[in-house]
Each structure stands twice: as structure tokens, then as C-alpha cells.
Amino acid sequence: MAKPKILIIEDDPAVRHGMTAFLRANEMDVDESDTCQKATELFRGGGYDVVVADYSLPDGTSLDLLPQFKRLSEDTPFIILTAHGSIDLAVRAIKEGAEQFLTKPVESKTLLVLVKRLLQQQRLRKRQEVASREQPGPMNPFQGVSASIRRLEEQARLMIEWDSPVLILGETGSGKGVLARWIHAQGPRREETFVNLNCAGLTRELLESELFGHERGAFTGAVAAKPGLLEVGHRGIVFLDEIGDMDPAIQPKLLKALEEKTFRRLGDVRDRQVDIRLIASTNLDLEEMVRAKKFRDDLYYRVSTLTLRIPPLRERAEDIPVLAMTILRSVCSRMGRPEVQFSARALEALKEYAWPGNIRELANVLERAMILQKGECLEAADLGLGGRRPSHVATEAGLVTLKEMERLHIEKVLQRSGGNVTDAAQILGLARRTLYDRLKALGIATGKD
Ligand SMILES: Nc1ncnc2c1ncn2[C@@H]1O[C@H](COP(=O)(O)OP(=O)(O)OP(=O)(O)O)[C@@H](O)[C@H]1O
């Protein structure tokens, strides 16, 4: 990954060299200028992530540069340094669009922290922009014509207004998260936060501190206090994915938060008030887990007040064409390609296949097909379903071969890591090379690393 690129504009050589050397030693790419003119030339070349400029320069001030630079690149943060900490100047600088104002002498470490924070904010902003462009609104979880999906929509609409918890049941990849987001977007809490947490694979300590937060010193490594998701989601919706995997020791605390609307951060002595709507989901049989005493019955009764069950794709094959076309359209637009159609045979193949990984698997198959084929029509052979098991062979719901399970699991982890193979390999406990070999053997395309 390219290093962040910083432009330092400072006419005092000692100060300039000091800042440059320190930022370079901290993995940043630094260009220097001692005048406004040279800085303008450099900045026009583009690609700067942060500008650090002394106020007073031999041929002008950084307030002369600021509006020009903002016109050229509005998103590049601008830090102004000055020897005279004047409130007036600071107010003008901020009004003109400067992100920060620092009084000299500036400690290198302070500058580094500030630059890093601005870089992080910039990254976050970009990610949010991308996300909002990719998803103009929440996805429609009820695409299709089947009676079961219409029934699900009717039931879900009845549940929107209330504060009672909702339990969403469904196989892996069937769209439980999409439905939870839809409920949030339609309901009275839509302006408030939606936070989600996957309870699977987290140690008890981590899950507890993620949910309830902790005070400083609550455990080794708790160097600062941190609010939990219940606090962050106050007034909004907390979506707990895979609640069946929640450690039994945490379950009574969650029940207390739901029933009494209070909870306690780890290491804290006082209760805090919280108002959340809980949406939980699982692909496990929670009732069976209650019978087997693996899940608390009181929590089960509380979270399952309102239950929605998403049918697996293979039970609503008539919905597959609509879903596939919607997903294909969004893949094309993400890739900047003109719209692609399915051949009649390809649609048949999609309907015949069992889809043990449900909509997630469908989306992955279509994305891979689009990466590998460049024409205007997707044929059955382009889908690569040949080696996979058609629906009439999958005799019992959810029963798949070990190889299919491996493929599904890898696809799921890749999805969670945003397609990043290095991160996925780490989650799977594999060497990156080994994961690449498995991807090749299973015919999984990633599109990026
Ligand atoms: N109605 C839909 N339209 C388009 N894409 C969808 C739809 N439902 C789900 N998807 C896509 O399928 C994938 C899986 O969806 P989601 O994460 O909601 O499933 P899930 O049931 O919560 O999965 P898991 O059991 O792994 O938690 C996501 O990439 C999502 O974008």
C-alpha cells in the first residue's frame, strides 16, 4: 500500500527538516517547500493526503494558499502552524477551511498524532461515501414472487413500529442481516444508530466488553474506558448476529439489559440506563438448544417475542430469477460494466441448484461469473455450477458435502473480510499461500486482495 503523502511548507530549514525527518521515520512520504509558489506547483501535481503549512512565508501566508488548495482538492486536510497563537488568526483559518491550527514550537509527536488522526478521518469519510454510493438505501429483503416471501413481508411490516425484540431465523446467507437493516430503516428508530455484533467466534471476555463496554483497568489491557455497543446503540437498534453462540455467562446480563433497561460496564459499580431495540438472528435451532440447556430459556422467551423465519432459497426457487437479476445489476454497476443478461438456460441452472449458502452464495457465484466472462449474456456454463450439487441431490435441508461446506465457509469469511485474502487467511488460520491454493482448487474468485 502506498504511504500517505504529506506536503510541508515551512521556510525555516531547521523546523522543516525536523518535521520531514520525523514523518518520514514514521512511514510517510514527505515533500517540502519553503515558499508559496513552490508549494502551489507541488500541490497542483496532486496526490497529497495532508498539508502542513507555516502561516508566514517569504512570498505570502498560508491563508493565501488555503482557498486555492481547497478549490483543487477539498478533501485534503490543511494544518496551519504559527509562531503567534492568535485567536483571530485561528478563527480565520478555520473559517477558510483549515482542519487544524497549531502554535509553534510544534512537538513532532503532536504533529504525527494529528496527521494520523486526519488521515484516519479521511479514510472513514471515503469509506462512508463509497458505502452510501453503493447502497442508496437498505436492500429489499422481500424480492421475489413466492407466497413465503410475501408472507414474510406481511409479518415483518407488522413488527416495524414496536420496541419488542425480534428474532430472525434462517440458514446461513439467507439475508438475516439485510432484513434487520430493513426493519431499522423502516421503523421509528431509523434516525438513530444501527449497531451490529456477530457473537460467533468471540471469546467470552471480548464479547462481554464489546457489548457492555469497560472501565479503565477493568482487565489487563483495558488502558482506557470504552463504551460498549449497547451504549453506542442507545435509542437505536442493536443487531446481534448468531446469538446462539453467545456464551451462557453473558446471557443473563443481556436479559437484564432487555428487561430492566440497565446494564453495567465491566469494572464499573453503577448501572447505566439504556433504551435499545434488539434484533437477534441465528441459523441454529434455538429451541433445541434451550431443551439441551445450551441457551437460557428466559432469554430465549424474551428475544423470540416476535420471530421471523426467512425461507432458504431452495424452498422458493421461483424467486431466484428476480433476485439474480437484481444482484447482477448491482454487480455490473459496481464494476462499471453495461448491463448483462442471463440466457434462458442459465436461469434454469440457477433455479435447479440447491444454494446451501443461499443469497450470499448466489451473489458470490454471480460476481465470479462477471469477473471471468466479458460478454453481454451469461450462459449456464459461465456460472460454474457444474461441480456443485443441484437441489434434487440435497435431500435434507442444509446437508451438503464437506467440500461444499469448505467452499461456503471460505466464501463467508472472504465476504466478512471485504474480499481481502490476507485478512481472510488470518481468520481461517491458514497461510496466505495455502488459502490461494484452496481458492484455486474450489474455483473461488476474489476480485481483489
Ligand atoms: N434481498 C437481497 N437482495 C440482494 N442481496 C441480498 C439480499 N439478501 C441478502 N443479500 C446478500 O447476501 C449476503 C448475505 O446476506 P446477510 O449477511 O444478510 O445474510 P445472513 O443470513 O445474515 O448471513 P449469516 O448467516 O452468515 O449471518 C450479503 O452479501 C447480502 O448483500
Automatic annotation (TrEMBL):
This is Two-component system response regulator. Pfam families: AAA_lid_14 (PF25601), HTH_8 (PF02954), Response_reg (PF00072), Sigma54_activat (PF00158). Signal peptide: none annotated. Coiled coil: none annotated. The gene is pilR_1. Residues 142-371 form the Sigma-54 factor interaction domain. Transmembrane segments: none annotated. Gene3D superfamilies: 1.10.8.60, 3.40.50.2300, Homeodomain-like, P-loop containing nucleotide triphosphate hydrolases. Residues 5-119 form the Response regulatory domain. It comes from Geothrix oryzae. It comes from the Bacteria. Keywords: ATP-binding, Nucleotide-binding, Phosphoprotein, Transcription, Transcription regulation. The modification 4-aspartylphosphate is found at D54.
